[in-house]
Each structure stands twice: as structure tokens, then as C-alpha cells.
Amino acid sequence: MERTIRGSTANEIADSIRDLIGSGSLAPGAALPTVRGLAERLGVNRNTVAAAYQSLARAGAVASRGRGGTVVAELVRTEEEGFAAETVLRDLGSGNPDPDLLPLPVLAEVDLRTPALYGDALIDEGLRTWATAWLAEAQPRPFELSVTSGAVDALERLLVASLAPGDVVGLEDPCFLSSINVVKLGGYRPVGIPLDDEGITPAGLRAAIAAGARTIVCTPRAHNPTGISLTARRAAELRAVLAEAPHVLIIEDDHYSLLSRRPYHSVIPEEHPRWALVRSMSKFLGPDLRLALLASDPDTAAQLRTRLSPGKTWVSRILQRVAVGMLDHPDTPAALERAGAHYAERGDALRALLRERGITVRGDDGLNVWVECSADGRAVSEAMMRRGWLVRTGGGFLLEADEASPQIRLTAHTLDDAELRLLADDLQAAIADARRR
């Protein structure tokens, strides 16, 4: 392999290695020559080879393993939310809202006669009025409004607009699947921030900033997958830490917003120069609407506008008008209240049943229930499959995926009382089976 790497400059060496990776000559996991060895063979300075390796690492093409050397990066393993196709099992791993609890579309009542054209405003005026008032309740500071095609789109655009490949992003660990995917596929380096029962920990946040995090992503309530919400005390502690890091872009993903029974406690310090609050409509209006509202400081908003301009990838004004029609409909507040209460009641009922059986659960909000099994999560999942249930193992939500990690996540809000009791009994038996194995 060393004889096929060529070049006398860092760019030439990096391009040569990229060609070898692209042709399949260097497979994922293959070790590159040492910096000293390759420099001697090519007759260049070691700093030249080191710079080539660094540029490849920033692009996500290679990864450093410290004393283990530099290797070709493995393909990023990704998981997504959603129903399992063609399964005969009862699917408790989807992470979806209940379609019967989503407000009905109001297309017949929405004025779609006036077409939106190139050069028109990016945001429908009706949506701007509604969203500005709603977001100002949460962030009573000057902000600019943006609209994106969902929260994942917002996160991806925020990172692309403010970071370079190889930059460090602080993520909750465990973390929402799509956030993990966006960061890893974008070539950024995720650093995990652990959670306790009050949210991400101040010590973990400090460690992420010390590790070079230029962006922090935080879920203030109904964290996915755990259901943990920030307490007022913890949010104040985190604001104190972040006040000492004004260079860090803070992204709050308040995905559950209108359905949550917990108050919104922000980690964004007063006068912090770089911040964004993202609120998706997927959980309460439906995933297919593909809309998220984003409040941010003016500089961040200006960066976003360059990626959302007309003629490129703006969000359909038709979808925006449909969203306003649904939000302003007189039946919507009651529908949202009913949905939030249902998810809370079903989650509380399942957590109570599991605790009665000596099973540890975390969090108390959101669509899912996070279970600490004290046993191999993969073995628990397999035992549940034999009992007719499909559950999602918790290891996929970790920044370093581990299917044996002793957690599972359940999306069980469509089950009635008898089904919840059966689920709890089967899970108790499955955990016992996994421990025996």
C-alpha cells in the first residue's frame, strides 16, 4: 500500500489516499502507514504527511486511534425511527405519535389560491405571526424566525452553517438517533454528555467544552430516548457553565413542546451571542408535515438564510399555510390537550407497572419509556420477540453503539390496560431469561 500512495504536498498525498479509498484499495479499517514511514518513503517532511492525515480526518475519511495509528474510517452505522416492515410482532420500537391523536388536516379551509413564487418571502405571514408570539413566550429576547423542513433539517443546517468537518459537537449520551446520524454523517466529532434524572450534567458539559465542543445540542424536556426533562435548578447550573463559553453555539431541541407536561427551562444564558431554539411540529401535527420553527440570534439566522433562500431549498409556503390552518383551528387546542394527556397517562401507567415488578425506568415525559434492564439488552430484545413483542434496544442511542447495553426503549402508548400488564409481565420474564443466559 505504501508504494501506491503518492505526492509531495499535503493536498497531493491526501488526494492519493482518497483515490485509494474510493477505488476500494483501502478498505474501512485498513491501517495507513505511520507518518514517519510514509514521509521517509515519499521524501517529504513529516509535517506534510501529518497535515495530509489531519485534512483526511477532518473530512471523515480516516480516524486516529492514538497509538493504534491512523485507519480508514468505518462506514457510519445509522438507525432511524419508524415501524418495522413486515413484522408479525407487536411493534413497540417505532417512536411514532399515535396517528389517531393528530389534528385532522384542514386543507378545505386553507387558502391555497395565491401561489408562492421565486423571490417571495421565505415565511408565510400567518405562520410568522403565530410562531413569533409562541416562541417569544419561551425566549423573551430579540430573535429572528426561520422555518426548516423539520428539526433534523434545522440541526443539519445549523451545523453546516457554523462548523467545519472535524469540529466537536457535544451531544447527550444516550441521544436522539437522528442527531447522532447528522453529526457523524456530517463529519463532525461527537462528544457525549451524560444525563442524570435532572438532565445533562454540569460536569459532563464542562468536559465537552474542554474537549473542544463548538456546538452543544440539548433537549430541555421529554428527552428522546429517556423521557428526562431539565429541572429549573439544573438549567440554572448549565447556564452558569455556558456563560463562560460565549463561543459555543447552543442548540435547544424542544421537540415535544406543545405536548409536554413539564415546563420549558432554557440553558441559554442571558446575552449569549450564539443560540437557537428549535421546535418541531412532527409530534403534535404529524411527521409528514415536515416543519420546524427556529428562533435564533441574528447572526445565526443570517447564516441560515444563505441555505434557505428562494430558488434553493426553502420550505413550501403551501405546507406553512396548512400548518397555520391546523394551529389556528378551534378544535386544535383540545386535540393537543387530549393527545398530551393520553401519552402522559399511558407512560405513567407502564412505568408504575414496571416498578411494581422491580424494573428500573427513567424519565417521566414524552412518547417513550426508557428501561434499565440490568441485563444484556440484545438478549432481552430476543426474549421479547419470542413473546410476540418487538422492542428497540438502547445501545443504538449511545454515541458508541453497543447492542449489549442494558437498556431498551418502549413506545407503548397505543396499548390498553390489559396489554400494558401483559407487556410488563413479559418484560419481567424476558429480563430474568437474559440474566440466566
Task: List descriptors.
15% strand; Aspartate Aminotransferase, domain 2; 39% helix; 8-stranded mixed β-sheet; Arc Repressor Mutant, subunit A; Aspartate Aminotransferase, domain 1; 437 residues; single chain; 14 helices; 3 domains; 16 strands; alpha/beta
Summarize the helices and strands and which ones pair or pack.
Blueprint: H1 10-23, H2 35-42, H3 46-58, E1 62-64, E2 70-72, E3 90-91, H4 125-138, E4 144-148, H5 151-162, E5 168-173, H6 177-185, E6 189-196, E7 199-200, H7 202-210, E8 213-218, H8 232-242, E9 249-253, E10 275-280, H9 282-285, E11 292-296, H10 298-305, H11 317-328, H12 332-356, E12 360-362, E13 369-372, H13 377-386, E14 389-390, E15 392-393, E16 407-410, H14 417-436
Parallel strand pairs: 3-14, 5-6, 5-8, 8-9, 9-10
Antiparallel strand pairs: 1-2, 4-11, 6-7, 10-11, 12-13, 13-16, 15-16
Overview of the structural elements:
This protein folds into three domains: 2-72, Arc Repressor Mutant, subunit A; 90-98 and 333-436, Aspartate Aminotransferase, domain 1 (Alpha-Beta Complex); 113-327, Type I PLP-dependent aspartate aminotransferase-like (Major domain) (Aspartate Aminotransferase, domain 2). The chain has helices at residues 10-23, 35-42, 46-58, 125-138, 151-162, 177-185, 202-210, 232-242, 282-285, 298-305, 317-328, 332-356, 377-386, 417-436; strands at 62-64, 70-72, 90-91, 144-148, 168-173, 189-196, 199-200, 213-218, 249-253, 275-280, 292-296, 360-362, 369-372, 389-390, 392-393, 407-410. The protein starts with 9 loop residues before the first helix and ends with a helix. The protein is globular, with a radius of gyration of 24 Å. Strands 4-11-10-9-8-5-6-7 form an eight-stranded mixed β-sheet, with helices on both faces. It is built from 14 helices and 16 strands. Helix 5 packs parallel to helix 6 and helix 13 (377-386) packs across helix 14 (417-436). The chain is 39% helix and 15% strand. The mean pLDDT is 90. It has 437 residues and is of the alpha/beta class. Keywords: Aminotransferase, DNA-binding, Pyridoxal phosphate, Transcription, Transcription regulation, Transferase. This is Aminotransferase class I/II-fold pyridoxal phosphate-dependent enzyme.
